[in-house]
Amino acid sequence: MEVQGSHRRQLPVLLLWVNGLMTLGFAGARQRTDLCNESLMLEKLPACGKSFEEMMRKVDSKKWCNLTEFIMYYDNFTQCTEREANNASCFWPNPLAEGFITGIHKQFFSNCTSEKVHWEDPPDEILITLILIPVMLTCAMITLVVWCSKRSDIL
User: Fold this and answer.
1) Burial track 61-91 (b if 16+ CB lie within 10 A, e otherwise)
2) Within a domain: residue 99?
3) Count of domains forming the chain
4) 88: which of 29, 37, 58, 148 fits an S-S bond (Cβ 3.0–4.6 Å)?
5) Residue 144 lies in a domain
6) pLDDT of the residue at 73
7) How many Å apart are CA 45 and CA 83, to the nearest integer?
8) Is residue 134 part of a domain?
9) How many CB atoms lie within 10 A of CB 24?
10) Per-residue confidence at 27, pLDDT binned at 50, 70, 90?
11) Which residues cross the membrane (predicted)?
């Protein structure tokens, strides 16, 4: 009896120890303890912007709002900013990288506005039809269910 009580008291300690090992990365997860070198990241990000700017010169400025014209260039830009942030031991996206990316967006895409779609109601004939069909079907189904439940002798 004493031995079982001793094991029961040691079980929570053992569970806490295992939990601690798993949290520290013993189970295969790796924790990053490097600090973000923001100055290095801010020093390297302009090279990504310069490369993107050179690639965008190949695209007619009238087509800058059409993503299909430059999607590969933008993908390279995104990968470059992510790589430079990771090289500086920073997560991505982070506020500094987002600020840089926003600056690039303002430079190239400030004239791209989304056109607002003006929604209109359909004509009254169509609207009434779209409302009445489900109402009539619902009424018909209710009538059918009630009629069939009263005539259980047939079923």
Assistant:
1) eeebeeeebbeebbeebeebbbebbeebebe
2) yes
3) 1
4) 37
5) no
6) 94
7) 10
8) no
9) 10
10) very low
11) 12-29, 126-148
